[in-house]
UniProtKB/TrEMBL annotation:
Is responsible for the charging of tRNA(Phe) with phenylalanine in mitochondrial translation. One of its GO terms (biological process) is phenylalanyl-tRNA aminoacylation. The lineage of its organism: Eukaryota, Fungi, Dikarya, Ascomycota, Pezizomycotina. Residues 431-560 form the FDX-ACB domain. It is found in: Mitochondrion matrix. InterPro entries: aa-tRNA-synth_II, aa-tRNA-synth_II/BPL/LPL, Fdx_antiC-bd, Fdx_antiC-bd_sf, Phe-tRNA-synth_IIc_mito, Phenylalanyl-tRNA_Synthase. Its EC number is 6.1.1.20. Belongs to the class-II aminoacyl-tRNA synthetase family. GO terms for cellular component: mitochondrial matrix. It comes from Cladophialophora immunda. Residues 463-482 are annotated as: Disordered. Gene3D superfamilies: Bira Bifunctional Protein, Domain 2, Ferrodoxin-fold anticodon-binding domain. This is Phenylalanine--tRNA ligase, mitochondrial.
């Protein structure tokens, strides 16, 4: 039983409230300006001078690739063509269809034929097309607008990307992801089929956006907002769908470009952030500048990038502080630090972390100087550029004091009614319903991945590399000593499919290797808790038994 995530619900919500982007192809050089549907003149009139709603400047940027056409082109046999035609004609929302040994899905109106790489589940498809970032009173949209307001037009153009189906090429290949990067693994990424996937990061649109800049030289940069999808663990800060924003700024070739960028740095607003910069050396092999670049320019581009993001973070923290009651506000400055990072498409690369409650460092964003090959491919040969990517939920949880990432998907009016466009208000928890945890223990099957329907590829070999775009190289599968019959993300996916948002977290609580047989046993604790009501024992037992059944059927585990 799933409260939030039934296909029927999503279709109703789509019809009533959320816009479903059309799949028609629009040339990259002529983006469509979306009318300010949600900019209410009433809200504008009511806002006090220091509570101005963030500006409305959204544009839809459409990928070069039309997924419907590519999907059609990729199917070869007559059977496939017939099945695809049938899918095309069926009047469905997002749905998976299995018929006579064939399977496929309809996603936002386009048909896709599955192959051996496909690993989509209906629970994930139910979330496609909700477009939370387009709903003006939703905290994701309010946060998006606040971020966009830090990167002003006309220098920056703002894009939102509705359709999450992109090509493997756009998500990984064009960006230079190595073949064994963990982000490419089927355990970490939702594949529609071997050529298409649900984007794992907004950088999937980087190439298209740079092409747009090449054709629109009056703009010098952009932001892109989109929903992104990763097979991941289940806890209060991880959900298989979250939102990212990406930004870039280019400088064309000009005499003394370093001095020009330096002037742009001087123009940046000053912030009160206390920032430690541990990533200033680009001369070694750890975080090198690119050989084709002028070092003076790289240092200025990196400085401009860091100043721009420090400005963004200081605006977020100031907005968060202002939304607290005056007695709860402190004047203590926010502490942040720059550390070195690795992304296949930038060098040097950085991450910004902030000191979180309890003294923990929390990663807010990744960024860097764009690889020259990527700019060249987009027609920006003589340009230099920085780019960044941030997680919107990370900022929104902080801004609104939202304690659980599942809440962003809630349709409960007690949640939705608390937020208003252009305003940052602290979330008032409406209730905390009781949790009910249950353990599931099983022996994993000691066979190679081929027999696992969602099996791993050999993608855990990129060690010591900070993962970009999903695929956590540091999170080893607990089963890694027994080759890939089971990956931790597989149980996460089963739990999500069975119980959806009724699970707060899933944790490995015990691991055990039999001393004589060498077989491995794992025990996971599933914490069932609804955000909206009290779950009955009977209901939780039913869900838990179904999780056990599916683990047995799909992964051949032996329940203990
Ligand atoms: C990326 O996705 C890169 N595309 C970012 C980038 C863009 C780098 C452009 C350079 C140039 P990463 O996987 O670290 O990187 O994710 C970027 C941000 O998304 C993180 O810093 C974090 O804020 C957010 N994020 C990542 N994973 C999650 C998650 N599971 N839940 C919520 N937010 C997340
Ligand atoms: Mg990261």
């Amino acid at each position: 039983m799933r409260l939030l995530k039934t296909g029927a619900f999503v279709r109703a919500a789509q019809a009533a409230k959320f816009s479903v982007p059309s799949c028609s192809r629009i040339p990259i050089s002529s983006p469509v300006t979306v009318p300010s549907r949600w900019a209410s003149s009433q809200a504008q009139a009511q806002a006090s001078p220091d509570e101005q709603p963030f500006p409305e400047q959204s544009v839809n940027l459409v990928n070069e690739v039309d997924p419907a056409k590519t999907a059609a082109a990729s199917s070869q046999s007559g059977d496939h063509a017939r099945f695809e035609k049938k899918l095309q004609e069926l009047d469905l929302g997002n749905e998976i269809i299995r018929e006579n040994g064939q399977s496929g899905a309809k996603i936002l109106g386009a048909p896709y034929i599955f192959d051996q790489t496909s690993n989509l589940s209906s629970s994930i498809l139910d979330l496609v097309g909700r477009n939370l970032y387009d709903h003006p009173d939703h905290p994701i949209c309010i946060t998006r607008k606040l971020i966009e307001s830090c990167f002003e037009e006309p220098t920056y153009k703002h894009f939102a990307m509705g359709n999450p189906v992109v090509t493997v090429r756009d998500n990984f290949d064009v960006l230079g992801f190595p073949a064994d990067h963990p982000g490419r693994s089927r355990t970490d990424t939702y594949y529609v089929n071997s050529t298409h996937l649900l984007r794992t990061h907004t950088s999937a649109h980087q190439n298209a956006a740079f092409q747009w800049l090449a054709n629109n030289p009056s703009s010098k940069g952009y932001t892109i907002c989109a929903d992104v999808y990763r097979r991941d663990s289940i806890d209060r800060s991880h959900f298989p769908v979250f939102h990212q924003m990406e930004g870039a700024r280019v400088w064309e070739a000009q005499r003394n470009r370093a001095a020009q960028i330096e002037r742009n740095c001087e123009e940046m607003p000053k912030t009160g952030l206390v920032v430690e910069d541990q990533a200033t050396d680009f001369t070694g092999t750890a975080n090198p500048l690119q050989p084709e670049h002028n070092p003076d320019e790289v240092y200025q581009v990196a400085r401009h990038l860091k100043l721009s993001l420090e400005y963004l973070v200081s605006r977020i923290f100031e907005a968060s502080r202002q939304s607290l009651p005056s007695a709860a506000r402190t004047d203590a400055p926010m502490q942040a630090r720059w550390i070195e990072a690795y992304f296949p498409f930038t060098s040097p690369s950085f991450e910004l972390e902030v000191l979180w409650h309890g003294g923990e460092w929390l990663e807010l964003l990744g960024c860097g100087v764009v690889k020259q090959g990527i700019l060249n491919k987009a027609g920006l040969n003589d340009h230099i550029s920085w780019a960044w990517g941030v997680g919107i939920e990370r900022f929104a949880m902080l801004l609104f004091g939202i304690p659980d990432i599942r809440l962003f998907w809630s349709t409960d009016p007690r949640f939705l009614k608390q937020f208003t466009r252009g305003k940052i208000t602290k979330f008032e928890p409406f209730s905390k319903y009781p949790a009910c945890y249950k353990d599931i223990a099983f022996w994993i099957k000691p066979v190679p991945s081929a027999s696992s329907p969602l099996g791993s590829q050999s993608a855990h070999t990129t060690s010591g590399v900070a993962a970009a775009a999903g695929g956590d190289a540091t999170k080893a599968s607990p089963a890694e000593t027994q080759p890939a019959a089971f990956h931790e993300n597989d149980i996460m996916e089963v739990v999500r499919d069975v119980a959806g948002s009724l699970v707060e977290d899933v944790k490995l609580v015990d691991e055990f290797v039999h001393p004589t047989t060498g077989r491995k046993s794992l025990c996971y604790r599933i914490n069932y808790r609804s955000l909206e009501r009290t779950l009955t024992n009977e209901e939780v037992n039913g869900l838990h038994e179904e999780v056990g059944r599916r683990m047995k059927d799909l992964f051949g585990v032996e329940l203990r």
